[in-house]
Amino acid sequence: MPIITGPWRKPTNTAADQKGGIHDDSTAQNLGFAGGTVAGNLHMEQFPPLLLEHFGEAWWQTGNLSLYFMTATEGGDPVRCFLETTADDHTSDVRVWMENENGDTVMAGTAGIGSTSNSEIATRLANLRPAQDLRTLADVRIGEMSPVLEVTATDASVDERMPVITEPLACYQEGPNRVLPIAPLVELFRAVEPHVVPLKDAYVGLYGAIEVQYYNGPITSNNTYNLNGKAIGLSESPKTEISWYEAVLSDQANGEPAARMIKMDRLMKAASPLWADEV
Q1: Residue 51's domain spans which residues?
Q2: How confident is the model at residue 265, as a pLDDT?
Q3: Quick check: helix, strand or coil at residue 189?
Q4: Residue 163 is part of a domain; what is its CATH number?
Q5: Which of 92, 135, 207, 214 is the most exposed place for a label (fewest CB within 10 A)?
Q6: How many domains does the chain have?
Q7: Is residue 120 part of a domain?
Q8: pLDDT at residue 75, rounded to an integer
Q9: H-state helical runs in the chain
């Protein structure tokens, strides 16, 4: 199978100064990581050049990117991404992944145009094992819809990414309505989090997976969208409580969905007073 290989990039840990979170060196090291981690949505910004090369501009309109995060990286660690496809087919789903210099898989999944019924995240959700003991996530109610919120990404949110983004595409920088890079797009969706994933007590979390799907994209700056969502899954591991939620951006004029995100978060039990002396 032909493989498109992206260049080596060194993403910046832009949240390194946020003390008490997984991106902070001391907090991450206390939880067994080498240092503060680079957020998964920042790594996702390396994939659009490969996706546009393979799928064309249609990817911004109805494309998707579905990634499960596997190996944490620190700011400045070199990483590169890959896209594997058949030579003559530019419509079927493809396999995508990112590696570090040691050859470890940082994240892996699928990308395509249209339906995500066979995506990386759809497959993992179908095989989700129910949680037996949730404490930080005890108040989460699966399927309970959030209120409808109004959200807007300003040019300033795009400008903030430009000095540090690994792939500063022209569409992020031109026109009155600029295409949102994936990092500020994810932040737009995250406005729904307090409503669908209420948390008990202190916590330290890290992103575990993200799927972005465009229905009528791209999503652009200076446009106000409606946003709502719901929790769609709960699970756990020996070291984490795990939440999954879905959020949908809709066009205010016609109510039609514009884009959707599914996000998984891992909440570290060792960082929570609710798990004191048990992990």
Answers
A1: 3-114+130-275
A2: 94
A3: helix
A4: 3.10.129.10
A5: 92
A6: 1
A7: no
A8: 75
A9: 25-30, 40-44, 48-55, 58-62, 120-126, 155-161, 182-189, 193-196
Q: pLDDT value at position 241?
A: 94
- Look at residue 53 and tell me if it is in a domain: yes
Domain assignment present for 121: no
- The radius of gyration of the chain from alpha carbons, rounded to an integer in Å, stands at 18
Identity of the amino acid at 135: R
Residue 107 is assigned to a structural domain of this protein: yes
| Strand 224-236 versus strand 149-152 pairing type | antiparallel
CA distances from 41 to 38, 155, 160, 230, 239 (A): 9, 19, 15, 20, 22
Question: Could you tell me the two tokens for 14?
Answer: 């832009």
Q: What pLDDT, on the 0 to 100 scale, is given for residue 15? A: 53
The pTM is what? 0.92
* Distance from C-alpha of 228 to C-alpha of 159, rounded to nearest angstrom: 26
Residues in the chain, pLDDT under 50: 16, 20-21, 24-25, 28, 31
- Burial group, residue 138, by CB count within 10 angstroms (0-12, 13-18, 19+): middle
